[in-house]
Design brief:
The chain is about 65% helix and about 5% strand. By secondary structure, the chain is mainly alpha-helical. Helix 9 packs across helix 11 and helix 11 runs antiparallel to helix 14.
């Protein structure tokens, strides 16, 4: 067997390990308080899509389960919806700097059209007089982990199918993702506690004004509110991965590490894009330069490690590096950075702490 095929086998094995982590996550949710699943289910869609899109890559041309096995939703292929939902983790950082804020503005307008689309004349009059709370903030123990504009981006692909949200469409797609993952896992469910032990009281939801400039109270300053929302989306995504995954869902292994490292890279990329678009941001907050500079020393933007985090097909590492009896993901990290996995993770956590503190200072 060639070196490339051996390395692809290693890559697929690691994917299946992480698929099982996600499968156990879904198993916990199915056994838990529906009030808690309500608060976190939509946030999970991009992460489920992430692993399903990767499964598609490895299963293409084989007899293994594939997204093409599932029927279209309202004329749109499951494969296309999966790819679009996976990409929402980028939170607009996939766009060039001049298009980031216009794209975000377009989506906020689209969401508002959805929000008031079914309102009658009386309800629209009420909005005209008193405004419309359009930014919903979801928190866990007073830590913001999601907002409605971010969640709308997560599910925008489903909205654009019919130009309206229907519970049946969302439920159908979620069921496909769950089924795909359950069909792909090769490991039995562990015997450790398989329920979520957080309490519904840990979760809160608050509605504030964003689009309404007259009543705006989303952040401490409404100046350049769209780039503030851009930063806030990353802030929420980081908190979801670092708090909801390990504390609420008990996801603390390789998939959790991968997502944490990916969201760190995306957060700094977004910050870099924004600081080039809004130069005064660096003037007011010089720490931005340091965050961007350090990112390049931790994971260079053109490095194989960056590719190996966002894609399961491992490149640039000799097959002989891996001991299949040990943790493959950690071996991949240690080979790439030349330090221990624990040291690398601590460094990422430290930089994420600095990032979250900076964004908090800018917004609140």
């Amino acid at each position: 067997m060639s070196e490339i095929k051996k390395l692809k086998q290693i890559s697929y094995k690691e994917l299946l390990i992480e698929v099982h982590e996600v499968y156990e996550l879904l198993h916990k949710i199915s056994k838990s308080d529906i009030r808690i699943t309500f608060y976190i289910s939509t946030s999970l869609i991009p992460y489920l899509s992430f692993v399903c899109d990767s499964l598609d890559f490895f299963h293409e041309g084989t007899n293994k389960v594939h997204s093409s096995w599932y029927k279209d939703i309202k004329g749109t292929s499951i494969q296309k919806i999966i790819k679009e939902n996976r990409s929402t983790l980028k939170l607009y950082s996939e766009h060039k700097k001049n298009k980031v804020i216009p794209k975000l503005e377009d989506d906020t307008s689209l969401f508002n059209n959805f929000l008031i689309g079914d309102y009658n004349l009386k309800q629209k009059l009420v909005i005209k007089l008193f405004g419309q709370h359009d930014l919903g903030i979801y928190s866990f123990r007073n830590i913001d982990y999601a907002n409605t504009y971010q969640l709308f981006k997560n599910s925008k692909a489903l909205y654009t199918i019919n130009h309206e949200f229907k519970g049946s469409v969302m439920e159908e797609f979620t069921m496909v993702l769950a089924n795909y993952i359950s069909q792909s896992t090769i490991y039995p469910v562990s015997k450790i506690p398989n329920k979520i032990f957080s309490f519904p009281e840990d979760f809160t939801h608050e509605n504030v004004y964003f689009k309404d400039s007259k009543r705006f109270n989303a952040f401490s300053n409404k100046e350049d509110k769209y780039w503030r929302l851009f930063l806030y989306n990353y802030y929420c995504q980081n908190n979801f991965i670092r708090n909801i995954f390990p504390i609420v869902l008990g996801v603390r292994q390789n998939f959790y590490f991968r997502m944490k490292f990916c969201t760190y890279l995306l957060s700094i990329k977004g910050l870099d894009l924004l600081s080039n678009k809004v130069p005064e941001l660096k003037e007011k907050h010089p720490d931005i330069n340091e965050l961007i500079k350090i990112r390049e020393t931790i994971v260079p933007i053109k490095s194989d490690l960056r590719n190996n985090l966002f894609h399961y097909e491992i490149v640039g590492i000799p097959y002989e590096t891996f001991n299949e009896k040990e943790n493959l993901f950690k071996q991949m990290i240690e080979y790439s950075v030349g330090t221990s996995f624990e040291e690398f993770e601590n460094q990422i956590d430290h930089e994420l702490d600095k990032y979250q503190k900076l964004v908090n200072e800018i917004l609140f």
